[in-house]
Inverse folding.
């Protein structure tokens, strides 16, 4: 199922922050994990992830460093900062309220 | 992978303005595409198919190029500003700090060379241009006084105009005016009358002060006669200083040109002898000055004030000295001229001005002058009596002379027993100040008084030691800066893609902390240790402190280098550059190599010393330790780094290639500059060898040239050049490291200098403190007290006279 492009774009930041909150990852790894967990439903344009990561880094929500991956190659790993965690919490709360409102309107029910 | 490279280039082309960000992003995208293609290959795709799949999954290149630009635009702008500020301010500031500290060291060395061997304590401790600052809270009147209480006649006139009846201020003015009195023969009548009027006014202000009458007497005598020194009456006396040897002194012979002037002079003289006092208030003026000066916190301030005291002009002493010389000569002339009764009368009282002046003396020079006057008068009196045929009076006069000589010699004889102990203490504890201060040799209690000054002096010398150390550190910083320049220059025209990014502020802070830790420990040790740990001998303690600072310097340098290397290594590891085994630049982890390098460095210092000694003959022995130690210290980090580089892909290209590179002057600008300095100095030495009379300067020049020669030798035989396939990367790493080390070292240097100077400032003020709780704040007072026995003797003579003849009598009874 193809999601609306704008809808996917709007959720990229909280998804990335959530994944990085679990453990540090490099870009390709994030894409893989998203595809695995959603059975490929999101179909991200992979390249768009990196500008998003760079913006988050410039905002101080994530931090990066080059280090050796298990494959032995150098990869740029990202991890979330304390500020990033606060931002994630805010996103989650916003999403819950948004989803609640949309559900009430579209489905006529709560949850 | 040409397709991938084209794609990456297309996506990142707008980031090219910042090479570091461009490199970072390109590498990240390439790594992603490699992973995606590898996965496609694992699914069974062909090489081309897998690449196409990876690229199409990544997205549209134009759209991504815009997104990457938008995402990184702010970061690049900030970095551009930081780089601009770095280049514009930080690197030049670092070099400026280093150069300023180098100059400080040069001044230190200059002062050591110029003043220490000649024993000019004042100039050595206060510098060539001592300044005295006023107290911060002066009233308007006091400020006027501070500004005008100088040695200028105009200022003195202004003071008198403001306060015409103050005896001290008026005497100060007359003292400066009396500088012209010895030229009275050439003065016009108007000028002479003006001087006489000034002196009359002085006598009005202080009717019981004989000084104004004596100055008038001196004026008339100078006007009316010529004096031939050493051609008058001779007499023998026992020397006080030269171990009781009998010496001869000859007085003045008077050639009278105007007998009337002489008679007027004698009239003024007789007006003075009955007065109770005779002073020019020179000591009062000195004391008045000290109430206006800021209380000194440093030895330099204190010595600057001493210097001002010492430079207080004593023209009245010159005029009185002239009068004391002419009075016996005048008595002899009266006898020769047939005025025997006048001659007898004068011979009986001619020591009187010296006695009055000595009894009221406030400064040591006044006591010494009074002694001169009494010696001349009482020493020549017996011969005058003999010429008059008065044998009994002659014998009495000789007795009076011997009494006064005994009183004087007694002071110096008492000092002799203390002399040996003084020498022993001086060698043991050491003090330039005490060594150059005569009273310290004469009286043991002056040694005790001297203690705060000695301690302060040791702190001052520690500051000089610190200056030398700072110089070594600063030279190293400059060497790093200069050595990094060619890399900066080459990068300008190169690919513009740095292999290393700036290490980051956190890493910089770690490096600074690593450098500051040994310094902080040393500070704590000197601060919390026993108080006397600071007060050490000039001769042994000075170099001991240099050795301590050298050890701290090496430890700080090692720690800073190790921490800096760790930071670079972390950054290189991120960037995928192998720069050799961990800790290769850390002497703490390679103590064996560090020891060998230290030995090699000291050997380098010895070779330089040997060359310098061969060049200019015997070097001053005291220079051996500082010169060899200093050179070893400078060579050590270079030798260690050179040797260690062999373990990280560097090898020595050989002497011939090194010489070629030196000739081209491209590969190592630093060494080329050192070689040039050495050559220029050697050339100057050859040209001016005969002209430079100052041996120490010659030796210092020769040593620097020899040191440069040794450094070039080390370079030629041990230069490691990057080798192998990674040579270019290694060279770039070295360049980046050198560039980054310059501000780091300068920051360490600045912190070291500030901490040490702050500490030494407090130490100086702390040690000077007891001086202000003592009554003897000024050595002038101490010196005067040294001779206080003689002043008391003269007071007694004065009292006897006044008791016999009554105070206030203006003429001698017949």
């Amino acid at each position: 199922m193809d999601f609306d492009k704008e809808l996917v774009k709007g959720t990229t930041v909280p998804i990335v922050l959530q994944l990085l909150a679990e453990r540090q990852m490099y870009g390709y790894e994030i894409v893989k994990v998203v595809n695995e967990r959603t059975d490929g439903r999101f179909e991200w344009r992979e390249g768009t992830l990196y500008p998003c990561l760079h913006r988050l880094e410039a905002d101080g929500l994530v931090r990066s460093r080059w280090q050796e991956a298990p494959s032995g190659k150098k990869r740029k790993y990202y991890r979330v900062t304390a500020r990033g965690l606060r931002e994630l919490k805010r996103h989650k709360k916003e999403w819950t309220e948004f989803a609640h409102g949309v559900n009430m309107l579209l489905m006529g029910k709560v949850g | 992978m040409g397709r991938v490279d084209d794609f990456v280039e297309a996506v990142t082309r707008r980031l090219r303005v910042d090479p570091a960000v461009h490199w970072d992003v390109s590498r990240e995208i390439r790594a992603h595409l490699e992973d995606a293609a590898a996965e496609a290959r694992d699914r069974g795709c062909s090489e081309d198919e897998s690449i196409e799949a990876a690229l199409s999954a990544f997205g549209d290149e134009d759209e991504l190029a815009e997104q990457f630009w938008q995402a990184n635009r702010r970061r690049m702008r900030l970095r551009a500003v930081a780089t601009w500020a770095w280049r514009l301010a930080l690197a030049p500031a670092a070099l400026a700090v280093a150069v300023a500290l180098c100059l400080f060291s040069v001044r230190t060395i200059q002062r050591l060379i110029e003043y220490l061997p000649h024993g000019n304590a004042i100039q050595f401790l206060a510098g060539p241009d001592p300044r005295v600052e006023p107290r911060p809270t002066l009233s308007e009147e006091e400020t006027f006084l501070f500004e005008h209480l100088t040695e200028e006649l105009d200022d003195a006139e202004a003071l008198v105009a403001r306060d015409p009846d103050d005896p001290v201020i008026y005497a100060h003015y007359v003292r400066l005016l009396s500088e012209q009195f010895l030229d009275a023969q050439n003065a016009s009548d108007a000028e002479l009358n003006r001087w006489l009027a000034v002196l009359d006014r002085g006598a009005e202000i202080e009717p019981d002060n004989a000084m104004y009458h004596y100055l008038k007497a001196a004026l008339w005598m100078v006007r009316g006669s010529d004096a031939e020194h050493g051609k008058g009456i001779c007499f023998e006396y026992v020397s006080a200083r030269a171990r009781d040897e009998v010496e001869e002194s000859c007085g003045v012979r008077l050639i009278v040109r105007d007998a009337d002037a002489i008679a007027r002079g004698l009239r003024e003289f007789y007006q003075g002898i009955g007065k109770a006092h005779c002073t020019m208030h020179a000591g009062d003026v000195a004391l008045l000055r000290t109430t206006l000066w800021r209380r000194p916190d440093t030895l330099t301030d204190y010595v600057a004030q001493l210097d001002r005291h010492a430079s207080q002009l004593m023209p009245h002493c010159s005029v009185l000295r002239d009068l004391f010389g002419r009075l016996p000569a005048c008595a002899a002339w009266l006898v020769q001229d047939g005025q025997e009764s006048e001659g007898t009368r004068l011979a009986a009282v001619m020591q009187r001005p010296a006695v009055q002046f000595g009894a009221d003396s406030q400064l040591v020079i006044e006591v010494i002058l009074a002694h001169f006057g009494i010696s001349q008068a009482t020493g020549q009196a017996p011969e005058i009596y003999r010429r008059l045929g008065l044998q009994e009076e002659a014998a009495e006069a000789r007795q009076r002379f011997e009494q006064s000589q005994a009183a004087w010699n007694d002071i110096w004889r008492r000092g002799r027993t203390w002399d040996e102990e003084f020498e022993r203490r001086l060698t043991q504890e050491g003090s330039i100040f005490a060594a150059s201060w005569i009273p310290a040799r004469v009286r043991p209690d002056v040694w005790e008084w001297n203690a705060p000054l000695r301690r302060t002096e040791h702190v001052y010398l520690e500051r000089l030691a610190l200056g030398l150390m700072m110089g070594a550190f600063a030279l190293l910083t400059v060497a790093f800066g200069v050595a990094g320049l060619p890399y900066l220059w080459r990068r300008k025209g190169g690919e513009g893609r740095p292999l290393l990014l700036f290490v980051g502020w956190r890493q910089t802070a770690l490096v600074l902390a690593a450098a500051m830790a040994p310094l902080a420990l040393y500070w704590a040790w000197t601060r919390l240790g026993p108080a006397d740990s600071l007060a050490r001998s000039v001769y042994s303690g000075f170099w001991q402190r240099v050795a301590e600072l050298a050890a701290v310097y090496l430890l700080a340098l090692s720690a800073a280098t190790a921490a800096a290397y760790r930071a670079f290594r972390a950054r290189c590891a991120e960037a995928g550059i192998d720069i050799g085994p961990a800790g290769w630049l850390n002497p703490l982890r390679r103590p064996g190599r560090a020891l060998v390098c230290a030995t090699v460095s000291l050997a380098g210092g010895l070779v330089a010393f040997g060359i310098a000694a061969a060049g200019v003959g015997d070097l001053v022995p005291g220079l051996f330790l500082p010169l060899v130690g200093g050179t070893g210290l400078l060579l050590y980090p270079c030798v260690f780094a050179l040797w260690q580089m062999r373990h990280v892909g560097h090898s020595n290209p050989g002497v011939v290639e090194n010489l070629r590179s030196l000739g081209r002057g491209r590969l190592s600008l630093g060494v080329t500059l050192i070689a040039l300095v050495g050559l220029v100095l050697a050339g100057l030495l050859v040209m001016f060898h005969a002209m430079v009379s100052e041996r120490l300067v010659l030796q210092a020049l020769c040593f620097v040239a020899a040191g440069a020669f040794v450094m070039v030798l080390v370079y030629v035989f041990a230069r490691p050049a990057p080798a192998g396939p990674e040579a270019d990367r290694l060279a770039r790493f070295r360049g980046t490291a050198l560039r980054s080390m310059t501000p780091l070292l300068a920051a360490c240097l600045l912190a070291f200098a500030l901490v040490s100077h702050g500490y030494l400032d407090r130490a100086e003020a702390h040690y000077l403190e007891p001086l202000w709780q003592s009554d003897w704040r000024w050595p002038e007072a101490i010196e005067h007290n040294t001779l206080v026995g003689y002043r008391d003797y003269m007071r007694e003579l004065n009292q006897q006279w006044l008791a016999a003849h009554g105070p206030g009598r203006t003429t001698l009874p017949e």
